[in-house]
Design goal:
Residues 30-649 form the Aminoacyl-tRNA synthetase class Ia domain. With 977 residues, the protein is of the alpha+beta class. 44% of the residues lie in helices and 17% in strands. The protein has 30 helices and 32 strands. Strands 7, 8, 9, 10, 11, 12 and 16 form a 7-stranded mixed beta sheet that branches. The chain is globular, with a radius of gyration of 37 Å.
């Protein structure tokens, strides 16, 4: 590069890097440029492939901090592999989110005075699609703002035609394989939305309740308990389910009730006679040790009922109102129940109204024993807050035991690895105790189950379409068919995510994509959905996707499990708590009033809104400043330790915003040292010349390459927190705080040759440019901006963007343990002088005489290598080596190992002030020494304490006594000044 061109390049670079780092200005338009340039798309011209499937966010509004955390990790991995030359695909998409989305749309319609039940299914679904376009666009915009380098040309949605075809294909083939069936089971039921829920959609809330104690009388009037009572007392938190009781249970080892097992009691109200059974499930010390059993309305009772062949009695309708006639199922194979007339006073009552009425009746009739306050966990629907009811209903199920076998083997044999490894145990615990999976939901929004009913014949048929049903089952056109109204659980379609998004069920798709990128390389997810999503993906993928030899193919090779993002106090972030943070607000900033409005706008309870407003105003009195994307991403990755939940603290974001600013300012400084005052370019070498390097250059190049090795290792181990630490430590502590300062001293030293200065500028730029590349996966915007200015100065800009630049590789030949040890010793020496300056309250401008006493031979050799740098950085006027027994003037001293560093005080300090300081320090040390002396003179302590503790105290006392002796001598010398 000619001198003229170089000058122009440097000046342009300085002009581009404004005086202050402004993330909004840096980020504006940059992502769009990356996307339009096609950098995020795979190239198919590389030997190695790397792929990630983005866990599809729900189209229910906007992304939260968990999404931001997850995206930062995935993007760092993706950008890292892309820069390392891998054929890289990060597959994006969104999830239709079943009940969550339907609920959002219903609420929006209700605000307009429109009820879903007053609409046709088709009209309602049209409204959901309108919402999806609005919300989905918001989500993809947020993903872009986070800097996520996904391949948008391959964006998918779980209700796309291609994915819907995959869902139908999988359902039909599982049904044909005998692995999908329709059956009556107990499910989590939401009476408000009248649909089954998965366990993940149910939250257990700690609430105040009651425990009601009722008397159940023995059918045999002559039968009594050991204490002479003709009844048992059972305790329950749900009195209304008494109507569906089919047994009373006791523990088989409970001697109080052993003589009663096999006898019967007659239920109050219904008069039903039910047995007394023995089962280990019952805890003898809970209540009276007697438990009422309602198999159709409690999951534990359901299992106990199966063990004892008890009938199931459903007492509720889909709205949780008491049925006029209770449904009695002798067993679950019975399709049509027997009917038992409900006592007329209960028929049609809402469940909690029935509870109140029953308790009043028990009190009036004398079989209410007691009521006590009781803390319970109330199961509430995650969305809507309704108390969830265990309810017996017909649903579609996947028989999972056969699917689980290869999914267990894949983890056992290492085909799939969990990181951290302890999550393998969690996965295996779930997989070895599986229940069949309820996949049907009573919703309108979702993948409608491809099943058709012939009501006249009482038959159900499964196929991909009605036309296929007629062909497959040889049905004539005049047979009336009705498609199943239920839709599939969203986990069913998302369970196909890794292969359905790559064109598995699309005959027109390029099969090269699936062959190249499946199995995916890694799944990045939270531990809370290992069972709900991860396990089901493994089961379904291995059943449907095969290798060339016909063996099952895994969906991913590694499952990287991260913790959940919590607030600074470790609390779960939720709208109800008012502690939610929006990642975009942290990027752009938000004023206090807007933040208050955002956190309280959806609060139904004015008291809750007032509480959250007060909390917000206290926590963010000035709102949230704009930190920029890179600072937020760096915070996320720095917290990405193995599997632990993270407590998110804005102070960390502020600290990493300062780190971004440090990089910016260091870059400006480096560029300014490449031109003189007239904006003329100074000599800059374009290649390394180690022959003219001195310790600073050798050291920073050694540390650069050591850091690169560490970063590669930590990426391979999915330790993004360690990668962040490597980057931070190198750039801030080693490059900025040390090498830049050392370089500055040399560049300002007239005795340094021009040839060496040209090489120093090369090293400054080379290390900066390299550090920008290895930092890019975590801080994409800042590094791109600066790299575009720095890379041309070294003729490094062989690509248009750092996004596709080569990731740095370590040069082991430039790593030197001796050089790093020399520099570490130099740093200790400089730190010792700085400590002395602080103690003596001497400014940095004062140049100091320094004496080195008790220096070892190898240290004297090392001193010759670092002497110039030491004198320059520590502002040393003169440097003299003195022997151990030489008499030295009164000095302030510091120790570097066995080496004593002294700065003579005469002429530098006020003896009176220094004597006063030492006197206070002496008094403090003497108190510490006296305390230890008293402890060691205590025979009780010496005889009872472990020997190592006593020895440690003795060593501490000896050290203090030595310091006191030295300090006393210094004080005597001061008095003589």
């Amino acid at each position: 590069m000619s001198n003229h061109n170089l000058t122009a390049s440097i000046q342009a670079a300085l002009n581009q890097l404004e005086n202050a780092y402004n993330p909004a200005q840096v980020e504006a338009g940059m992502y769009q440029g990356w996307e339009e340039s096609g950098y995020f798309a795979p190239t198919f011209d590389k030997d190695e492939s790397f792929s990630i499937a983005l866990p599809p966010p729900n189209v229910t509004g906007s992304l939260h901090m968990g999404h931001g955390f997850n995206n930062a990790i995935m993007d760092a991995l993706t950008r890292y592999h892309r820069m390392n030359g891998d054929n890289t695909l990060w597959q994006p998409g969104t999830d239709h989110a079943g009940i969550a989305t339907q609920m959002v749309v219903e609420r929006r319609l209700e605000a307009q005075g429109i009820r879903r039940r007053d609409m046709t299914r088709e009209d309602f679904i049209d409204k959901v699609w309108e919402w999806k376009e609005e919300s989905g666009g918001s989500i993809t915009s947020q993903i872009r703002r986070l800097g996520s380098s996904v391949d948008w040309s391959r964006e998918r949605f779980t209700m796309d035609d291609g994915l819907s075809n995959a869902v139908k294909e999988v359902f039909v083939r599982l049904f044909d394989d005998g692995l999908i069936y329709r059956g009556k089971r107990l499910v989590n039921w939401d009476p408000k939305f009248q649909t089954a829920l998965s366990d993940l959609e149910v939250e257990n809330h700690d609430e105040k309740g009651s425990l009601w104690h009722f008397r159940y009388h023995f059918t045999d009037k002559d039968l009594t308990t050991q204490d002479g009572k003709n009844y048992l007392v059972v305790a329950t938190t749900r009195p209304e389910t008494l109507l569906g009781d089919t047994a009373v249970a006791v523990n088989p080892s409970d001697e109080r009730y052993a003589h009663l097992v096999g006898k019967t009691i007659t239920l109050p109200i219904t008069g039903r006679v039910v047995p007394i059974v023995a089962d280990d499930y019952v805890e003898s010390d809970f209540g009276t040790g007697c438990v009422k059993i309602t198999p159709a309305h409690d999951f534990n009772d359901y299992e106990l009922g199966r063990r004892h062949s008890l009938p199931l009695i459903n007492i509720l309708d889909e709205r949780a109102n008491i049925l006029p006639a209770m449904e009695v199922y002798p067993d679950l194979q019975t399709r049509e129940p027997e009917l038992e007339t409900t006592p007329s006073e209960y028929a049609g009552l809402e469940r909690f109204a029935a509870r109140k009425f029953l308790v009043e009746q028990a009190g009036d009739q004398g079989w209410l024993e007691d009521i006590e306050d009781y803390a319970l966990k109330a199961p509430r629907a995650e969305r809507g807050g309704t108390i969830v009811e265990p309810w017996l209903t017909d649903q579609w199920y996947v028989a999972v035991k056969e699917l689980a076998k290869p999914a267990i083997e894949a983890v056992e044999d290492g085909s799939i690895e969990f990181v951290p490894a302890q999550y393998k145990n969690m996965y295996m615990a779930w997989m070895t105790d599986l229940q069949d999976w309820c996949i049907s939901r009573q919703l309108w929004w979702g993948h409608r189950i491809p099943a058709w009913y012939d009501d006249a014949a009482g038959e159900v048929y499964v196929a991909r379409s009605e036309a296929e049903v007629r062909t497959k089952y040889n049905l004539s056109d005049d047979v009336a068919l009705r498609q199943e109204d239920d839709v599939l659980d969203t986990w069913f379609s998302s369970g196909l995510w890794t292969f359905s998004t790559l064109g598995w069920a699309d005959p027109a798709a390029d099969k090269k994509v699936l062959e190249t990128f499946h199995p995916t390389s890694v799944l990045v997810t939270g531990f809370d959905i290992i069972f709900f999503w991860v396990a089901r993906m493994i089961m379904l993928t291995m059943h449907f996707v095969k290798n060339e030899d016909g063996t099952p193919q895994v969906p991913f090779k590694t499952v990287y499990v991260h913790g959940l993002v919590r607030d600074g106090n470790g609390q779960k972030m939720s709208k109800s708590k008012g502690n939610v943070l929006d990642p975009i607000d942290l990027i752009d900033g938000i004023d206090l009033e807007a933040l208050v409005e955002k956190r309280t706008s959806n609060m139904m309870n004015p008291k809750d809104a007032a509480k959250i407003e007060k909390q917000t105003r206290k926590e963010f009195p000035e709102g949230i400043p704009a930190y920029g994307t890179d600072a937020l991403r760096f915070t996320f990755t720095s917290l990405a330790s193995t599997g632990r939940d993270i407590n998110f603290d804005l102070k960390r974001v502020e600290g990493y915003r300062n780190f971004c600013n440090k990089i910016w300012n260091a870059s400006r400084f480096v560029l300014m040292n490449c031109v003189d005052g007239d904006s003329n370019a100074k000599p800059i070498d374009q290649t390394a010349n180690p022959d003219v390097w001195e310790l600073p250059e050798k050291w920073i190049m050694s540390r650069l390459n050591s850091s690169i090795k560490d970063i590669h290792q930590h990426f391979a181990q999915y330790r993004l927190d360690m990668v962040s630490q490597d980057i931070y430590e190198f750039i801030w502590n080693e490059y900025c705080d040390w090498y830049v300062e050392l370089a500055k001293a040399s560049l300002n030293d007239d005795s340094v040759t021009d040839a060496r200065k040209a090489q120093i500028r090369y090293v400054l730029l080379h290390v900066l440019e390299t550090a920008l590349r290895f930092s890019h996966p975590i801080m994409p915007y800042l590094t791109e901006e600066i790299w575009q200015t720095v890379a041309p100065l070294l003729s490094r800009k062989d690509t248009d963007s750092i996004v596709v630049a080569a990731y740095p590789q370590a040069d082991n030949a430039q790593i030197s343990e001796q050089v790093e040890a020399d520099m570490a010793w130099l740093q200790e020496l400089i730190a010792s002088i700085r400590n002395i300056r602080g103690e003596m309250k001497l400014g940095n401008a004062v140049r100091l005489p320094v004496l080195l006493q008790n220096i070892a031979d190898e240290e004297e050799a090392r001193l010759s290598r670092i002497k110039n740098q030491f004198k320059a950085l520590a502002k040393v006027e003169s440097l003299e080596i003195v022997k151990e027994d030489d008499e030295v003037p009164l000095s302030s001293s510091s120790m570097v190992g066995q080496l004593r560093v002294l700065v003579p005080m005469k002429g530098l300090i006020d003896p009176t002030a220094e004597l006063a300081r030492l006197d206070k320090a002496h008094e403090k040390l003497q108190k510490q020494a006296d305390g230890i002396s008293r402890k060691l003179s205590n025979e009780g302590f010496v005889s009872k304490a472990p020997a190592q503790v006593v020895d440690a105290e003795k060593a501490k006392l000896a050290e203090l006594e030595g310091q006191l002796k030295t300090m006393t001598a210094q004080m005597e010398q001061l008095k003589a000044l």
